[in-house]
Amino acid sequence: MYSSASTARLKAARRLTKRALRQRERAFLAEGPQSISEALATRACVSDLFVTAPALANHADLVAAAADAGIDVQMVSGETMAELAQTVTPQGLLAVCGFVDVPLDSIANGVANGVANGVANGVANKGPTLVTLLANVRDPGNAGTVLRTADAAGADAVVFADASVDPYNGKCVRASAGSLFHLPIVVGPRLPETVAALKRSGLRILAADGRAGVDLHDPRAQAMLSEPTAWLFGNEAWGLPDDLLALADESVAVPIYGRAESLNLAAAAAVCLYATAAAQRAVAQRAVAQPAVRPAASASVASA
Question: Which partner for 279 in 29, 91, 121, 226 could form a disulfide, CB atoms 3.0-4.6 Å apart?
Fold first, then answer.
């Protein structure tokens, strides 16, 4: 049913461990049953699946589903898998997938949540209400965790601005736990142009900055969160410099009530995104609960 991996296929897959070659081929490696299952479920472009004998025994249904979808399934040794996966304890499943990012315009112009590989889920012209914007975020584990959190919070998109880590980095893909395939991502646009496009689409840009005078629980901040929002997050070590803060409409701090010096990027992003999602959901629920206003009866009906 499955063939042994050819030398040519292995060489092609190994090349995808390098960013420049990923960009040239517009393909990347996704490791593990969670990521591969989500890639198949969202009909992402998967061309090859490499599997070890133990992984085949443990995930026979997933491997069979890939084969049924026309994906070339190839058996490899544990040693070869370790080389491809570049992890200490490989999970035995590794797929070659096509890039899934979309143009910035498709987000700013209102492509609906649920886009995978640039194909909308059929709900068009829905303006974005929650977008995550990463500026100079360099750690792939942090970036993947923010992507996963944005997915969980119901964000419409995540934008990796030009100086941020490659979302197709193996560590970032693993940290996203399949969320890379769930929501639109935009890769590489310059930050000023990105902010301008998101503002034109009706989003307020909020910068997460521990030095801000307004904190997340301030009534003014809470009022802003209920409206369409794009959160701007900066580098793990130095945050957002003044020139990038100037692009935002407002800077908001996550309050620290204990003695911790700060929150790391992923934790701060989770707090901000969930606070925004909660505020927006509360507004939506109030709108649904509010009874419709019935027109007043006409004078003739009333007199009758």
Answer: 226
